[in-house]
């Protein structure tokens, strides 16, 4: 009889264990389905959004996966009779300790998540912050990788970008350029305006709206400064700028105008000559 009672107890324990294992498997499968469902939902919401970077999908999917994993582990431990209250308390204390130890790192994560979600910049765009500028090559939760126009690698912590004003030169489709030139005070201002207007009208990549402007920018000590203000699409900006800067010099010289060097008149009064003249006057 004792054998059969032990067998019954063992069978009951095995049955309960089997039930717990089956329920745990169901929880795990349900968690996987929830993660997949959220992944599809996030991709559906963010796909095609211009202000949302593709890294948002990856980051949000990872966060949801880890959260669901933690919840499933806690539920499975509860099923097997393990007290998870102390486990959650340990996780909370460990989280606080890790947060204090990795304050700067967590700041980079928070800044990276906010910037990626807001779409302040995306991969392939040219940005400037602080004293750094370059094309965005990679965005992660910790750092942003840039490449300068001369091919230098820059790894910037996200918090340093978030904490300073950001210029995104690629976000807008068009930009205004300024082509400045100096002429002499003796040159004809009317002739200079004609030359600059012809240059502005002959450039096909200048946008008609807003229309190009030719302005007298300033009058300096040794020159009169003129400027062409015109708008161009981003992809044409630098090609037009360098070509027209060369063209500007050539056209100015062809018109007989002069680009003056900085000049300054200096009057030197000799102390010896002054003393000699004073002595003669006293005689």
Keywords:
283 residues, alpha+beta, five-stranded antiparallel beta sheet, three-stranded antiparallel beta sheet, 18% strand, elongated
What is the string of SSEs from the N terminus onward? HHHHEEEEHEEHEEHH
Structural class: alpha+beta
* Strands, count: 8
Straight-line distance between termini = 151 Å
- Give the biggest beta sheet: 5 strands, antiparallel
Q: Could you tell me the radius of gyration in angstroms?
A: 36 Å
The order of strands across the largest sheet is 4-3-2-1-5
- How big a fraction of the residues is strand? 15-25%
Helix content: 40-55%
Rounded mean pLDDT is 79
Protein architecture, described:
With 283 residues, the protein is of the alpha+beta class. The chain contains 8 helices and 8 strands. The protein has helices spanning 2-46, 55-79, 84-101, 103-118, 158-162, 189-202, 237-254, 271-282, and strands spanning 126-129, 132-139, 143-147, 153-157, 166-168, 174-183, 213-219, 224-233. Strand 1 and strand 2 (132-139) form a beta hairpin. Helix 1 packs antiparallel against helix 2 and helix 6 packs antiparallel against helix 7 (237-254). The protein is elongated and about 120 Å long.
Secondary-structure map with pairings?
Elements: H1 2-46, H2 55-79, H3 84-101, H4 103-118, E1 126-129, E2 132-139, E3 143-147, E4 153-157, H5 158-162, E5 166-168, E6 174-183, H6 189-202, E7 213-219, E8 224-233, H7 237-254, H8 271-282
Antiparallel strand pairs: 1-2, 1-5, 2-3, 3-4, 6-8, 7-8
Helix pairs in contact: 1-2, 6-7
